[in-house]
Specification:
about 160 residues, mainly alpha, about 95% helix
Length: about 160
Amino acid sequence: MKRVLFTALVLTLTLGCCAFAAEEEAEPIWQQGAVFLLQAVGFVITVLLLKKWLFVPVSNLFAQREAEIEDNYLKSEAARDAAMSEKEKYEARMAQCDEEIYNKTAAAAREAQKQADNTVARAREEADRRLRLAQDEIAIEKEKAMKEVRRVAVNMGMQVAEK
C-alpha cells in the first residue's frame, strides 16, 4: 500500500512538472518552483484526504474480510475434525456391529448344529430301541413258533404212536 502511494506521488509530481514545463517554458524559475511547491502541497493534501477517507477504510475492510476468512477457515477445520472424529466413531461402531453379527451368527450355527446332533442322536436311540423291541418281539415269536412246532411235533408223535 505504501509503495502504491509513493509511486503515485512520484508519478504525479513528475507528470505535473513535465506538463508544467511543456506549457510554460518562458516563466521565470521562481514561479515554476512556486507552482511545483503548490502542486506538491496539493498532492500531499490529496494523499492525506485519500488516506483518511479511502485507504484506511479500505484497509480496514480488507483486514475485516481477512479476519472473517481466517475465522471461517478455522471453523471449517474444526468442523472437518469433528466430522472425521464422528466418522471414526461410526466406523468403529460398524466394526463392532459386524463382530457382534458374526459372533451371534456363529453361536446360532453352533446351537443349530448342536440341536441337529441331538435330534440325530435321539433318532438313533429311538431306532436302536425299536430295533431291540423288534428283535425281542421276533425272539418271542420265534420262541412261540418253536414251542408251537414242538407241541405240533409232540402231538404228531403221539398221534403216530397211538396209531
